[in-house]
Amino acid sequence: MANPVPASFLTRANALFRKNLTYQKRNIWSNVRLIVIPLYLCVLLVFIQALFDTQVNNSADNQCGCQCLDSKCQNKTCGLQHSSPSQAIFCAFPNPPALPPLLQIPLTKTSSESCRRTGSCPLVTILVTGNNPNLGTTLSMNLLSTTSFPVNSTGDLLLRSLANNGTTSEADFTNYNDPGIHSNLPLYNIQTRCTQEATFSFSIGQFQKEVRCIQGLSLWRNDSREVNDAIFKGNHEEVVAAYDLLDTDRNNFNVTILYNSTYKKMLLDRRLKFVRVPRLVNLVSNAYLEYLKGKGTKMLFEFVKEMPKLETRLRMDIASFIGPIFFTWVILLLFPVMLTSLVYEKQKRLRIIMKMHGLGDGPYWMISYAYFLAISALYIISLMIFGSAIGLKFFRFNDYSIQFVFYFIYINLQISIAFLVSSAFSKVETSTVAAYIYVFGTGLLGTFLFQFLIEDPSFPRSWILVMELYPGFSLYRGLYEFSNYALKGNLNRKNGMKWEDFNGSGMDEVFSIIIVEWFLALIAAYYMDRVSLSAKDPLSFFKNPSKKSPSAQICILQKQGSEVAVEMERVDVAQESEKVEQMMLEPSTRYAIVCDNLKMVYPSRDGNPPKVAVHGLSLAVPSGECFGMLGPNGAGKTSFINTMIGLVKPTSGSAFVQGLDICSDMDRVYTSMGVCPQHDLLWETLTGREHLLFYGRLKNLKGSDLNKAVEESLKSVNLFREGVADKPSGKYSGGMKRRLSVAISLIGSPKVVYMDEPSTGLDPSSRMNLWTVIKRAKKHSAIILTTHSMEEAEFLCDQLGIFVDGKLQCIGNPKELKGRYGGFYVLTMTTSSQHEKDVERLVQDASPNAKKIYHIAGTQKFEIPKEEFRISEVFQVVENAKSNFEVFAWGLADTTLEDVFIKVAKTTQAFNVFS
User: Fold this and answer.
1) Which of 896, 909, 898, 879 is nearest to 824 (CA)?
2) Which helix (H) or strand (E) holds 451?
3) How confident is the model at residue 173 (pLDDT cuts 50, 70, 90)?
């Protein structure tokens, strides 16, 4: 039976754990499918990798070129001489050629080809500035050659003799296949003046090259600001380079070289394309030597040369290549699962009904968080195992411990964010759409925005740090680093990320951000959860407690208005208020529920005025009694119940349950409370028995007491027969669900029970059985019951209150109410239409104060005051009528509770209209 000791933290946690375990067993295949999703996705990557190997890695364009020696191409010869420029990089170079260092000649947009050939206009410019204008002007004149092409030099000897040769093609990331040499583009020699014949051809290796003269100017600028203006505000494409000589003099050579860095391009393995800077250094060095030693003094910079290498092939790992966006989506797919689960419990009010039956926030958070963490951990472990087993280098090349720690702290952050975000949604559909927008939006923004900014060396690193505060970008950054290290390991045949790479890779800041955000998100989520469950303003903590809320001010105005109302408060209601006031001064343990001037006002919305749902209710319900609340739809009965069970906070007034204030001690109130809400709040996959076991454990029932209480509850509501108790509640009929809800509210013998229309949808037999159960339960509980059934109210309730327009209009037991508001008989008589007046005259003669209340097609009803009319006189009236005309039917009825209800409701509503 009832256990006066509330369930402990561990007992409630155990109850929720066992309920969740049972629930998850019923949904085991959903969990299995969730955990093996990484396997499907990893297999998809394997197929993509196989397709990529066939079409890209093993294609002829991505290996050294070959020439067939027979018609069937069974014999072939391969090498650089048979390769296209794109194939040359893959060829073996046992003896790499010596290649001339070149300048990067900018492409011009304003000059024509004829101008380029004739030298009639300068096409390229070198800018010089510094602290010493005289020295700077001299060095500026020494930068460019004034001599024509040497007549007797050919081939690479000619190219090496001139220090200012360049090309308009961009450099590659290797000199094996320099586009300046291995292409049809001409080379250019920059001179101060070009003649008509300033073009010639020569051979270098197997390539025939043409060298053209291009006119250049070396111009002095007064300071670096003018250099910047010339480069960035003018036609900067034509500037080869700029030199800031700073404090250079005869004893000190100090120079800064400015060049076009847009030729740099970040590759996936983080190697930069070459930029042709060495020749720029050589130009200014030679100009300085000429300044010191005179004409003809130069440093020879004859060639550049790569290291020898073997033939290679493209080895692109597609999983590492698309890893950041792909695995961002994979890991974030857990977020919609968690968010929809939390919002589902909120939408179906399963969370609040558990709380009403004693489940505290601590056990709920611990078990729910542990469940999400277990699912997420299994998901991540499966991802790592499956990915490694099928050979994805993204997982195999990087240290497993780094990966697991990173994923573990991120899934904790993701769980905390799911709890936090769930407070902003009330519908599963909306939360699901928002969650998937977050998932796919994060991946796309990470690839097309965040990654671009990471790879841009000019973008401030501090802003990268700020962007990583967005949890999706911190995840993307970590996966991006894993991807880069895996790519480098694959290309260089080395291992990926190790712990020694942790600090230099950016992972240290990512870990720090995730851990701090995890902590903050968890605190914020817990706060918002408490706010949403208590129906408080999220900013109420920061508001001045002495300042009255708008709704409270509304109540004050309404109270002032009620003082000048014409209506006088009914005596019974006034007596109840006085009794409550006396109890507030001298508390009594006899009364389990006490409400003192309780008000509930819903604030104005969409231009509508505030709605007063409960207006100054004072009520006291003792233990062992059932109080019935009657009233028309919209009278405020459900709003009162919602206030008492903690769904909404009262606007003003106070209420106490077992001496505990519902505004400050609701968590303690829940431990001794049972609730049967207006709508059934059940888990469709759990059986009736499993529901009762869960709620019984929350009431601190254990062992044989628990099993006995569950069995008795099932039998009492007729759910024990024919295996119904072990059938999922989703298969129950509406009446069976209603009976189960009543059984849940009564299990554990709670001290206070609220029932909102408990017999709705039941057949007469089940309804009578349910009434018997409730009547037996009220012996040790205080019950507040709302109903529209007068028969139910009369059978169950010791006290009744009729509630109209938010006010308690009358209170008393059913017999008192019928005596007070029903002092009349109802006489019904049916005759032909032409005798209606005769019937009315006979009734008026017998009772002058009789009142006709109904009239249609010969049938009339009259209210006849009891004090002036005896039952024997009724028979006399009927006999007189029968002697004069035909009477088809007649009847006499005493006042019913329904008559009382209708009379009080109509009278009150009519008064409110005219007042």
Assistant:
1) 896
2) helix 451-454
3) low
Q: Does 87 share its domain with 103?
A: no
DSSP for residue 80: G
Task: With respect to residue 569, please indicate whether it lies within any of the assigned structural domains.
Answer: no
C-beta of residue 769 within 8 angstroms of C-beta of residue 718: yes
Q: How far apart are CA 678 and CA 559, in angstroms?
A: 30
Which tens digits make up the pLDDT trace of 540-570? 545 554 444 444 444 343 444 443 333 445 7
Residues 335, 197 share a domain: no
CB 652 within 8 A of CB 809: no
Token pair 């919602």 is at which residue?
Answer: 642
Residue 71: CB partners within 8 Å, gap ≥ 6? none
3-state SS assignment for residue 224: helix
Q: Which amino acid is present at 594? A: V
Following DSSP, what letter does each residue of 661-682 receive, concatenated? Answer: ETTT-HHHHHTTEEEE-SS---
Last residue of a domain, one of 534, 569, 597: 534
Q: Which residues contact 540 (CB under 8 A, 6 or more apart)?
A: 531
Q: What are the angstrom distances between the C-alpha of 30 and each of 33, 352, 381, 691, 892? A: 5, 25, 18, 21, 65
Vertex 396 angle, CA 393 and 399, to 5°: 125
Yes or no: say if 179 and 171 are a contact pair by the CB < 8 Å rule.
yes
Confidence band, pLDDT 50/70/90 cuts, at residue 158: low
Give the SS3 label for residue 494. Answer: coil
Our count of domains for the chain comes to 4
Q: Cα separation of 913 and 915, whole Å?
A: 6
**Residue 656 bridge partners (DSSP):** 594, 661
Do 276 and 322 lie in one domain? The reply is no
CA dihedral 551, 552, 555, 559 (to 10 degrees): -160
* DSSP 8-class letter at 477: H
Length of the chain: 915
- Same-domain status, 344 and 412: yes
Check pLDDT > 70 for residue 122. Answer: no
Residue ranges in 79-162 assigned as alpha helix (H): 85-88, 113-118, 133-142, 155-161
Q: Which of 217, 229, 236 minimizes the C-alpha distance to 121? A: 217
